[in-house]
Amino acid sequence: MKTLAHLKSQFLLNPDITYLNFGSFGACPKPIFENYLNWQYELETEPVQFIAINGLVYMKQARQALAEYINCDSDDLVFVPNPTHAFNIVARNLNLNEGDEILSTNLEYGAMDRTWKYYCGLHKAQYIRQPISLPIQSKEEIIEQFFKGYTVNTRAIFISHITSSTGLVLPVNEICDKAKELGLITIVDGAHAPGHVMLDLKQLKADFYTGACHKWMLTPKGSSFLYAHKKYQNDLDPLIISWGYESDNPSASRFIDYHQFNGTRDFSAYLTIPKAIEFMNENNWDDVRSKCRKLVNENAVRFCDLLGTQPISPITDEFLGQLFSIPILTSEPEQLYKLLFNKYKIEIPVTRGNGRFYLRYSINAFNSQADLDTLYSALSEIISATSLLQIPPSKK
Asked: Which domains does the chain have, with CATH numbers?
């Protein structure tokens, strides 16, 4: 297997930056980016053939490759620019009634909270952000706390596979199983999941699932997908009415026609998915992920000790993948982020949720222990020289 040092040279990231924020927007390796440019070159060389004829074949091939990778039927997938786009399709078409409830958690991504609040507000429905206590103790505790929010008015559940601010892997399989027993629609935000954790959509009982290929699957930006169970596909009107709507030349799937073809655009990013899967296979990505998780776990307690806080979950693969959110005490999160980037050249997000702040580091193939040591040294200096990070008195 090629070494991780070799893989570092495959990324286009600025070598002067200690990059610990893969989780936000991913980073595209050179072979995949070159594939992307090849598609764009073909587009500009013969735009009509690419968009109207050959591109339809290319898109089908990309869907087939992705479907095999995440184990589902390729006609149950449509490409979308990002998960927010996908969930606007779903939320807009649920036909909520007054008093209906969407059961979620207080750990969800802010854009999704806003989406559900908007559509629930239109129909006088309720978006329930069920509290999940941190630190997490067990899977069973999460499931129990989540379903305490269930009532006779619950219509659907919405939950992240991997949360954004906290980086926690949630027990979505078990939650979807129980939700289906209760007759609920199951909607899963898997933005961080494809390429990050094993994903089997046939095993997961999600009626709707979205994932971002431009994060952990390494494709260029603007490459995501929406999966919809066959029984719901014809209920989904498109966000944009265009040529795919009541198409003169329908494909085998109205779902694909309605949502895939909605005006002139560059869909080259979607077409890189087969190349991304090939790149991961060639570089034994299961082993890469394993080494990254090991680095995440080995450093987690060290950082919590430095900041005088506690991990928000057990340090195991059950709850952690390639992300770890260090709880921090700060009154100036934006200034902390700017200092880390401008002075120390460290790209790392200061995330927030429910009034708490976290430093969330992401680890991928280009990272090493030296990167985390650089962060540790910077934080030690910031604690000593500034008031941006507070240490609880009991921990000093």
From this structure: 4-28+284-395 (3.90.1150.10), 32-279 (3.40.640.10)
